[in-house]
From TrEMBL, chain A:
This is Putative sulfate exporter family transporter. It comes from Natronococcus pandeyae. The chain crosses the membrane at residues 32-49, 61-79, 85-105, 117-138, 144-163, 175-199, 211-229, 249-270, 276-294, 306-326. InterPro entries: UPF0324_pro. PANTHER family: INNER MEMBRANE PROTEIN YEIH-RELATED (PTHR30106), UPF0324 MEMBRANE PROTEIN FN0533 (PTHR30106:SF1). It is a multi-pass membrane protein. Its main location: membrane. Keywords: Cell membrane, Membrane, Transmembrane, Transmembrane helix. Pfam families: Cons_hypoth698. It is found in: Cell membrane. GO terms for cellular component: plasma membrane.
Amino acid sequence: MAPTRFLPGLAVLCLGAVFARAIELTVGFNHLLVAIALGFVLANGVGVPDRLEPGLATHKLWLGAGIVLMGASLTLETVLEVGGLVLLVVVCVTSFTILVVELLARNVFGLADRLGSLLAAGAGICGVSAVVAVAGAIRAREDHIAYAAATVLLFDAITIVVYPVVGDLLNLSGIVFGVWAGVSMFSTGPVVAVGFAHSEVAGQWATMTKLSRNALIGAVVLAYASYYARSGGGGRPSVRTLWDEFPKFVLGFLALMLLASAGVFSASQLASIENAYSWLFVLAFVGLGTEIRLAELRSTGLMPAVVVLVSLLVASALSLALLTLLL
Amino acid sequence: MSFDRSKLDVTAVYSRWTTLEHDWQSVVVGAVVVAVAGAVRIPW
């Protein structure tokens, strides 16, 4: 396959990014949310021609690269200051969310076990990536994967709009809003978007919190694989799963954080790196917007959506209360 | 001849790139940007 097939979609991402930035400079709307809105309008209003698809699909690459570069704008001291506390909150809220979704799905709403597990992974860890990773480990049915993925995407779309409004209404500080979004929203892209839409500090903490959560995916996949293997019919669990499912770009993020903490970069280099990740995020969010397809969201089942809604409300309210007290 | 050689190089690099896991591709892009930021001022 020729690399040139990516060019039309990449050109659209670049144009959208420049346009979103221009809107912010002229009208004052947040460029990240404008970027998502542009992608959304393109996908649901005009429609995405086939030749744009390969380039638009690169948005995950730009998001990952932006996160790697963000490591340079943080120092080890900042992370160590409240990092332990945040890690504790991440582990507690993630375990709590998985438990609540599993209990509601199995005991209250009577959903199939595997569908409940996919919803729990999507809500507890990292959205659609977690759904797909766990689906492979437990040999989930195709229709269950589609249901769970659609449910996660539905709540991604809702939380992108609701979280910034709640953050403004409650006048949350950057760190509280960032950690709250990172610990309770679903997919990485929307978390980074609403974080940076609130403030630079919120964006950095939202991303770090979400990365800690994503790093748990290997352990969760392993746990689910073991559980379903014991009950028969599941995939064979292996310790290698931990490494296979680990989000490797976290290593790039950590490497840059260590280099920046060691004073390797000059002030102008750091400014350039920060500008670079800002551009990469806008590019990524234009592409992210094109992934929100109304037609697919309509295919979400009512019961899975109710299960995830209840768990999101509980986890979100509890984590916000906890963070307001602790930070 | 030299054009053919450079085309071969690009093809080889692209082939290696496509075999990389997505997460590692992000790390490579990040490393390239850091290298560029060392030499050029990136505006916002």
